[in-house]
Specification:
GO molecular function, one term: transcription coactivator activity
Pfam families: Kelch_HCF (PF13854)
CATH architecture of one domain: 6 Propeller
Number of strands: 57
Shape: elongated
CATH topology of one domain: Neuraminidase
Radius of gyration: 31 Å
Helix content: under 10%
Strand content: 35-45%
InterPro entries: FN3_dom (IPR003961), FN3_sf (IPR036116), HCF1/2 (IPR043536), Ig-like_fold (IPR013783), Kelch-typ_b-propeller (IPR015915), Kelch_HCF (IPR059124)
Distance between the termini: 43 Å
Structural class: mainly beta
Subcellular location: Nucleus
Largest sheet: 9 strands, mixed
Protein name: HCFC2 factor
CATH superfamily of one domain: Kelch-type beta propeller
Number of helices: 4
CATH class of one domain: Mainly Beta
């Protein structure tokens, strides 16, 4: 929603405090210490159960080998596993809060947590090596390499009369302190900065730094200023990399402004930066607090799940895929079994004045609502948070090339995309995207929670409903074949064919209804132009009678979608010259969707789909390919809104009737994927047994039938059902439902 809210908390609500320690462990938050008022510091520990917004004051046991931590502020409080690590801070030596006598600390404590809620107590670990010097307002993070090594805590910077920029390392397993040697340019001495770990990098932003241009460590009474400089430390190579320098000019406020005492949090591969104060104004005799929110995308997003089919008609698909956290949109592409002719005469270039284009090989900074110039740091692209949620309209503009690097050294077949966005009449922001692995600061986007089916043992049954997303799958007919895959609230499976059998017949269906090397050419007479992706053909295009050789398959853009679903009835055709772009000329021709013609989908045609997520760093890798087929006119559609309800000794399947051109449904058939020796020879070809045939829109599946069920492991373990309808023409496409199984259930099958 991109909105702040103030929760109604209850319980032992702590007093307001500053410069406290704060860690998040699942749905609970622990807060330790801080300044309650000037000169009066705290050593209280509070726990907030965020699931209930309940505060609780916690009283941990004192250490067996010393005293508990004294009241302090500016300490570090870091979580790893079931332990918090407390280091340093600033204490007041005077008992009179009005007479502040500062004492810098370098003591080190370990706090053991109880699972879920509560703590065990403090302990003072016995460490080896030289302790870091006393300090406050430093940062501490914990990092553990995935392949080798033990977890290590890194302490950087801080204040002890003057600012520091030293780096310390603690091996948590051996409790040994050391000072690692680093490469690159070390950031200026600073305090009240932030440090966050994403991947193998520690990102350091802001803080108080020396006023002098040379960056020398000033005397205690030297001049200091807030900074907006930004660097990261590669924790595997201990090399510092500068992203935004302290002296970099930012007259147009295109970057997060200088600040100290702000907060920063990593969510996945995205870093959020909020608030802080931007220095001391002597003329005003106060400090100015910031109220802006920024985020940094540090790498391109992961590949989404396979595209899943909810519903198919003769000329459209309703599709979905699993959400990818913290992305701006999704690029959906298709290619058809039948070749699609290129369109001659469409300009291959032309960027509207309202679009924002990320320049190849350079840095591109963006801020809504206007485009921004490049800056000398090629590692960064920045956007200020937008105040609207209209981030990705469906007719966003895309730059096309025959091939491009998607992630690292990996390349994906043509065409790939560098993405820009045009400004809509009813939208007030424009977001640019850059094909790069560089970090990028962009506007905040929203995402909704994912849900998944939750089922237990089939014979240990409680009443439970599952509302699956329906999909067209292989037709249960001898005249038409369709294989499509759909997961119920999970990733879709992928099969190349299916075997359907009942008491009297055993039939094999393949996913391709035409020979692999030949296909019919789609006529180009039914071509529309427009801005929307959801128009439908009123009349089915006619195929020419003669088959021709299929040329190399091309991927065509369906569009860019803000959400993880789409209704597809058309796709964009590419100019002929675009199909021959040399892969080395990446971004040479940039196409405007508004200048492209659209091609309608054809009945009875197999289309393959893939989807990629987009964030500020560009387009991520594409998903695995899914294959779906449009319906043939005259046949009934696929049943929808399938529900699975468990009872004591069976399960109950129900569904909604599909549309039928004649208005009549003669019967329904339900099928169950069963274990078979044929599956061992070809695991991708499921074998189905008919378990119901009748007029009702529901059926019972007995425990005896379920005992023969095959558990499909192509994505998450699931039992597969298919349901289809029949009219005067025959059976239409089947709805495939994957009923998720837990490991215990699937292991028993």
């Amino acid at each position: 929603t991109n909105q702040w809210f103030l929760p109604a908390v209850r319980g032992d609500i702590p007093p307001g405090c500053a410069a406290h320690g704060f860690v998040c462990d699942g749905t609970r938050i622990l807060v330790f210490g801080g300044m309650v008022e000037y000169g009066r510091y705290s050593n209280d520990l509070y726990e907030l159960q965020a699931s209930r917004w309940l505060w609780k004051k916690v009283k941990p046991q004192a250490p067996s080998n010393g005293s508990p931590p004294c009241p302090r502020l500016g300490h570090s409080f870091s979580l790893y596993g079931n332990k918090c690590y407390l280091f340093g801070g600033l204490a007041n030596e005077s008992e009179d809060s009005n007479n502040n006598v500062p004492r810098y600390l370098n003591d080190f404590y370990e706090l053991e947590l109880q699972h879920g809620s509560g703590v065990v107590g403090w302990s003072i670990p016995v460490t080896k090596g030289i302790l870091p010097s006393p300090r406050e307002s430093h940062t501490a993070i914990v990092y553990c390499r995935k392949d080798v090594g033990s977890p290590k805590m890194y302490i950087f910077g801080g204040m002890c009369g003057c600012r520091l920029n030293d780096l310390w390392e603690l091996d948590i397993e051996t409790m040994t302190w050391s000072r690692p040697e680093t490469k690159g340019t070390v950031p200026l001495p600073r305090s009240l900065h932030t440090a966050n770990v994403i991947g193998n990098k520690m990102y350091v932003f802001g803080g108080w730094v020396p006023q002098s241009a040379g960056g020398e460590i000033s005397a205690p009474d030297g001049e200091w200023k807030c900074t907006g400089s930004f660097s990261y430390l590669n924790l595997d190579t201990t090399e510092w990399i500068g992203l935004i320098s302290d002296c970099q000019e930012d007259k147009s406020n295109l970057l997060p402004g200088p600040r100290a005492g702000h907060c920063a949090v990593a969510v996945g591969t995205r870093l959020y930066i909020w608030s802080g104060r931007d220095g001391y104004r002597k003329a005003w005799n106060n400090q100015v607090c910031c109220k802006d929110l920024w985020y940094l995308d540090t790498e391109r997003p992961l590949a989404p799940s396979q595209v899943q089919l909810i519903r198919a008609t003769t000329n459209s698909f309703q599709l979905k895929w699993d959400e990818v956290p913290t992305v701006e949109g999704y690029l959906l592409q298709l290619h058809a079994d039948s070749p699609v002719p290129p369109v001659a005469g469409i300009p291959g270039t032309g960027i509207p004045e309202t679009s924002v284009l990320s320049l190849q090989g350079g840095c591109s900074l963006h801020q809504s609502p206007q485009s921004l110039p490049s800056v000398p740091y090629p590692e960064m692209k920045v956007d200020h948070p937008s105040q609207t949620n209209n981030l990705i309209p469906n007719n966003v503009q895309v730059a096309l090339s025959s091939s491009s690097k998607v992630e690292g050294k990996e390349k994906v077949a043509a065409p790939e995309n560098k993405v820009t966005q045009e400004t809509m009449k009813n939208h007030t922001d424009a977001t640019g995207f850059k094909e790069s692995n560089a970090p990028s600061l962009l506007p905040v986007c929203t995402s909704s929670a994912q849900t998944s089916g939750n089922v237990g043992e089939l014979h240990d049954l409680d009443k439970q409903s599952v509302n699956p997303d329906a999909s067209v799958s292989s037709t249960v007919s001898s005249t038409q074949t369709m294989v499509t895959q759909q997961a119920v609230k999970t990733e879709s499976s992928s099969t190349n064919g299916a075997v359907v059998k009942d008491e009297t017949s055993l039939t094999t269906f393949n996913s391709k209804s035409e020979a692999a090397e030949t296909a019919y050419v789609m006529p180009s007479t039914k071509v529309n132009t427009g801005q929307t992706n959801d128009s439908h053909s009123s009349r089915a295009p006619q195929r020419p009678p003669a088959p021709v050789k299929t040329r190399d398959r091309r991927w065509y853009d369906v569009g860019i979608f803000k959400s993880n679903s789409a209704v597809v009835s058309q796709f964009y055709l590419l100019p002929e010259e675009t199909l021959n772009i040399n892969s080395k000329k990446e971004g040479a021709d940039v196409l405007d969707y508004r200048l492209l013609k659209k091609q309608d989908l054809f009945p009875g045609t197999v289309y393959r789909f893939r989807v990629a997520a987009i964030n500020g760093c560009g387009v991520g890798p594409f998903s695995k390919i899914s294959e779906f087929k449009t319906c043939i006119p005259g046949f009934p559609g696929a049943p929808s809104t399938v529900k699975i309800t468990k009872s004591v000794d069976c399960i109950h399947l129900s569904w909604e009737p599909p549309a039928s051109p004649s208005g009549n449904i003669l019967e329904y058939s339900a099928y169950l994927a069963i274990r078979s020796t044929q599956l061992q020879e070809n695991p991708s070809q499921l074998v189905f047994m008919r378990i119901y045939c009748g007029l009702k829109t529901s059926c019972i599946v007995t425990a005896a039938q379920l005992s023969n069920a095959h558990v499909d492991y192509t994505s998450r373990p699931a039992i597969v059902f298919r349901i289809s309808a029949k009219n005067e023409r025959g059976y239409g496409p089947a709805t495939q439902v994957r009923w998720l199984q837990d490991m215990k259930t699937s292991g028993s099958k």
